[in-house]
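Tip: read the tokens left to right.
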């Protein structure tokens, strides 16, 4: 499908080559939307100095080479090119887009294999709000990449191994498997952990048992491994309830926790040491990637084996990189992890490159996730200072959504279904609509609002378009057009919709789902203007006008529905 800015970029680049020589064919035309025309190209301003000519003269030369252009080009000011596309071109491209089930979104060429590492809760504790953003953003990126035809390998890097599991398994034995499983499946992981920790701190006998159990776990003792699986199965069952509530696409098949990489850690260290990439420093095995220094200006170590022989996150992450490159054959790895881990990942990536495990043709990227804040601007917690349980947060969103639609006459089952969709849509959209690396304030009142750039407003916009078709006695797929632009509101909406495909590709490439939210919000706003100014079904609208306006409604709905589904936001038939 044809994106206006892509078309204009190609045409202006061709004009640059004709006017000033082929060496200028790849110059960026600097095309941006304009309040004075559809678009403005500012390339003459940047090119003038290189050509030693006046910017306006350069702009006139470019304009002269755009004779076959599907619109008009005017030179304004010191050398801006104001570009207005022909209505007939917009109509034709919008009609083509209406016939495309993918709403103008192309396929990756060539497709890539992409690992997306996200969610990653700690199995020794329950999920809290800190896991919400990584889960939501990671899942949206997975949906986007799959829609473009990339092979997506989801990796839920659970914290499911290590010394705490000694006391966790001993606590399980003390309280009984049945009680432990019930507690863990109910999402009481924090209470479970606190109970085990209290005994560990208070009882030397329990502490000794716990340490022995760690040794048995690490040595592969069959009964200890069985108990570990009992613990993990119950914990994962709870995680799955949260994922099901949120409507994210993670499954048990996507689990690739620390335990998976544990057998690889000895070899990871041995190979790094043998290659001279890792060296002993104060009893610990370390990699010193160049360019990293501490506050004392001394080289900063990435510790891969502690002085006591234990391993840390860096060891596991390096083993994971090697596995993902060598075994999964990835082209790109996205780590959707908190921004506070930025230094860690920069050093891990640098160490991976030093070792030759992260080649230049594989991209490893840290998709930094900013902190969630409360209305007071501080880390989002309960009044007592504890992390808020994720299940409680999500249930409150549903309860508030249910209250907001209480007077709409729905039966109990319908109200429950809509409330869940609105509540989850509100939470997810509020997160995705801000830059993933930014902090954002979690505010139920704002995110559940039915006006502004919110999930409920987006859901309402799609439901309203569906209601138009119900009144017309048609399905959206039966709207066939043609699309005719007889009014500025129609033209503005159609022109905007043509940019959807390219926008989705950019959002996916740059890992910026907030830009898709911004596009959808503008889509909803432009549709609202169109619908308020131009009757679609009212008496007096002739059949042809009705048909082409319904076609524009159908195209808008397809773009809105596709965009929201890519974000993981539920789309409702009615609201």
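Filled-in amino acids:
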């Amino acid at each position: 499908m044809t994106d206006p800015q892509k078309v204009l970029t190609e045409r202006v680049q061709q004009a640059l080559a004709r006017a000033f020589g082929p060496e200028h064919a790849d110059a960026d035309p600097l095309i941006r939307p304009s309040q004075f025309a559809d678009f403005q190209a500012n390339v003459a301003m940047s090119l003038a100095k290189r050509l030693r000519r006046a910017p306006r003269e350069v702009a006139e030369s470019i304009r002269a080479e755009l004779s076959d252009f599907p619109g008009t080009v005017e030179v304004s000011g010191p050398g801006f090119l104001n570009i207005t596309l022909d209505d007939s071109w917009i109509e034709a491209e919008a009609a083509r887009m209406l016939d495309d089930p993918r709403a103008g979104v192309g396929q990756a060429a060539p497709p890539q294999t992409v690992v997306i590492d996200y969610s990653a809760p700690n199995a020794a504790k329950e999920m809290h709000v800190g896991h919400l953003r990584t889960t939501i953003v990671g899942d949206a990126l997975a949906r986007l990449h799959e829609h473009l035809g990339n092979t997506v390998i989801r990796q839920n890097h659970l914290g499911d191994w290590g010394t705490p599991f000694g006391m966790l398994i001993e606590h399980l034995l003390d309280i009984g498997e049945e009680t432990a499983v019930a507690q863990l499946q109910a999402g009481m992981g924090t209470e479970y952990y606190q109970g085990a920790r209290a005994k560990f701190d208070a009882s030397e006998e329990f502490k000794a048992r716990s340490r022995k159990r760690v040794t048995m776990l690490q040595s592969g003792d069959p009964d200890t491994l069985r108990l570990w699986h009992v613990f993990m199965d119950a914990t994962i069952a709870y995680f799955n309830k949260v994922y099901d509530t949120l409507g994210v696409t993670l499954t048990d098949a996507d689990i690739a926790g620390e335990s998976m990489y544990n057998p690889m850690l000895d070899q990871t260290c041995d190979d790094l040491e043998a290659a001279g990439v890792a060296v002993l420093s104060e009893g610990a095995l370390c990699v010193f990637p160049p360019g990293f220094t501490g506050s004392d200006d001394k080289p900063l170590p990435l510790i891969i084996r502690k002085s006591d022989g234990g391993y840390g996150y860096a060891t596991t992450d390096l083993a994971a990189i090697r596995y993902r490159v060598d075994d999964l054959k990835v082209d790109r790895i996205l780590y959707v992890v908190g921004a506070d881990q930025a230094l860690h990942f920069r050093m891990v990536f640098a160490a991976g490159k030093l070792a030759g495990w992260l080649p230049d043709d594989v991209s490893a990227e840290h998709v930094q996730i900013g902190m969630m804040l409360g209305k007071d601007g501080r880390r989002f917690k309960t009044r007592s200072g504890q992390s808020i349980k994720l299940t409680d947060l999500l249930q409150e969103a549903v309860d508030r959504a249910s209250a907001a639609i209480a007077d709409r006459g729905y039966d109990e089952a319908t109200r429950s279904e809509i409330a869940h969709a609105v509540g989850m849509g509100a939470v997810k959209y509020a997160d995705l609509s801000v830059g993933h690396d930014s902090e954002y304030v979690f505010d139920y009142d704002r995110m559940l609002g039915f006006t502004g750039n919110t999930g409920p407003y987006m859901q309402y916009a799609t439901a309203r378009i569906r209601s138009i078709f119900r009144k017309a006695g048609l399905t959206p797929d039966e709207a066939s057009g043609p699309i005719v632009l007889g009014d500025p509101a129609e033209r503005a909406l159609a022109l905007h919709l043509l940019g959807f495909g390219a926008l989705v590709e950019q959002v996916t490439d740059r890992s910026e789902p907030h830009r898709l939210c911004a596009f959808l919000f503008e889509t909803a706003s432009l549709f609202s203007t169109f619908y308020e100014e131009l009757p679609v079904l009212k008496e007096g609208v002739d059949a042809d006008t009705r048909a082409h306006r319904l076609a524009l409604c159908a195209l808008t709905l397809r773009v809105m529905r596709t965009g929201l589904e890519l974000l993981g936001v539920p789309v409702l038939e009615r609201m």
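The mean pLDDT is 93. Residues 184 and 438 are 33 Å apart (CA to CA).
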